Amino acid sequence: MRHRLILRNITQTFEDGGMHRTVLDHLNLQVAEGELVAVMGPSGSGKSTFLSIAGALLEPTGGDVLLDGESIIGKEKQELADMRLHKLGFIFQSANLIPYLKVEEQLLLIAKLGGMDNSRASGRARGLLHKLGLSQRLSAYPEKLSGGERQRVAIGRALMMDPAVLLADEPTASLDASRGMDVVQMLACEAREMGKCVVMVTHDERVLTLCDRVLYLKNGRLTENG
């Protein structure tokens, strides 16, 4: 079994009003291909810091992060940007779609940034949107979409460059129960069928039955006990 994301002895500290504060304390995590892992924890427990480090947005004070066996520590800014574009897919609480781009254009922009040729990009975008049930919405602007549709577009955009790892930050928070379950089911299917791994920070206990593991972040570490 291949581990597509590994966090090894991650520590994150910072100065707060002259005090030395530890947010993450030798945190460890391994997520295998095909696996959907939920991470829960109260506000202030370090979930955002954890996701930022896993997503190559923040370098930890100590420890190592490996994406498909390659360490992200110490890389130059451009190398990290390339890894985020090609190895990582991000899904947030708000879909964060670009208001002046149509549904298909949201995905094509990512392909252009990633250097994908136009023909392949068009085919992949349409294939993903068909899979997500959005074939009839290719030319719609975000303002014309429902909350669930916007979140599905965000999933398609995150998948456009075929990343190894999907990171989701409260992806169901703005959705009702039915649409929230649909979104997480899509993420679980994508992990299993395409051999990706998904890490989802959530407070939504309704979707936990769809996850392979549920971990709790407390005292700077991940544990299986809440």
UniProtKB/TrEMBL annotation:
InterPro entries attached to this UniProt entry: AAA+_ATPase (IPR003593), ABC_transporter-like_ATP-bd (IPR003439), ABC_transporter-like_CS (IPR017871), ABC_transpr_LolD-like (IPR015854), MacB-like_ATP-bd (IPR017911), P-loop_NTPase (IPR027417)
Keywords carried by this UniProt record: ATP-binding, Cell membrane, Membrane, Nucleotide-binding, Transport
Signal peptide: none
Domain ABC transporter: 5-226
Keyword Zinc-finger assigned: no
Pfam families: ABC_tran (PF00005)
Main subcellular location: membrane
Topological type in the membrane: Peripheral membrane protein
GO molecular function, one term: ATP hydrolysis activity
Locations listed in the record: Cell membrane
GO cellular component annotations of the record: membrane protein complex; plasma membrane
Domain of life: Bacteria
Keyword ATP-binding: yes
Subunit (UniProt): The complex is composed of two ATP-binding proteins (HrtA), two transmembrane proteins (HrtB) and a solute-binding protein.
Record's function text: Part of the ABC transporter complex hrt involved in hemin import. Responsible for energy coupling to the transport system.
Similarity remark: Belongs to the ABC transporter superfamily. HrtA family.
Name of this protein: Putative hemin import ATP-binding protein HrtA
Natural source organism: Paenibacillus montanisoli
